[in-house]
Design goal:
about 120 residues; mainly alpha; 3 helices; about 40% helix
Length: about 120
C-alpha cells in the first residue's frame, strides 16, 4: 500500500476554520430572515455544508481563486445555512439549540434500481 500524501492546509480542521476564520469574516445582523446556531456542529447538514466550504476555501487559497469561492461556494451555502425560514438552524433560538427531524423516507423496492438508468454502462 502506498503512503498517502499529506496535503498542507491553512487550518487543521473544520472547527478551527469556522471558529478562527469564518465566524470573524462573516458579519451579519441576525434576526429578520437570518439566523445562526452557536452549536452549528450539532447539525449534520451544517457540518456537511461548512466542510465543503472549508475544503473549497483551502483550494481557493492555493489556486488564488477566492472570488470563485465567494460566488460559487460561500454565498450559496450561507444563504441556505442562515435562512430563518428554511435552513438547518431554523428551529434554534439564541441559547436554545434544537434539531429538526430528518427527511421522511420509505423503503424502496430494490428491483427499482436494476433498470438501465441506474446501471453502470461500462460494467465496472
Amino acid at each position: 500500500m502506498e503512503p498517502t500524501e499529506t496535503v498542507e492546509t491553512v487550518y487543521s480542521d473544520l472547527a478551527t476554520w469556522v471558529e478562527e476564520h469564518l465566524s470573524k469574516l462573516i458579519q451579519r445582523r441576525l434576526g429578520g430572515s437570518l439566523t445562526w446556531c452557536t452549536e452549528w456542529y450539532r447539525h449534520a447538514e451544517a457540518v456537511s455544508r461548512l466542510n465543503a466550504m472549508w475544503q473549497e476555501w483551502e483550494a481557493a487559497v492555493v489556486e488564488a481563486t477566492m472570488s470563485g469561492w465567494w460566488l460559487y461556494h460561500c454565498d450559496p451555502h450561507l444563504h441556505v445555512l442562515m435562512s430563518k425560514d428554511a435552513g438547518p438552524f431554523m428551529a434554534c433560538k439564541p441559547g436554545d439549540h434544537r434539531t429538526l427531524e430528518p427527511l421522511p423516507v420509505a423503503d424502496s423496492d430494490a428491483r427499482l434500481w436494476l433498470g438501465s438508468a441506474f446501471s453502470n454502462p461500462t460494467g465496472d
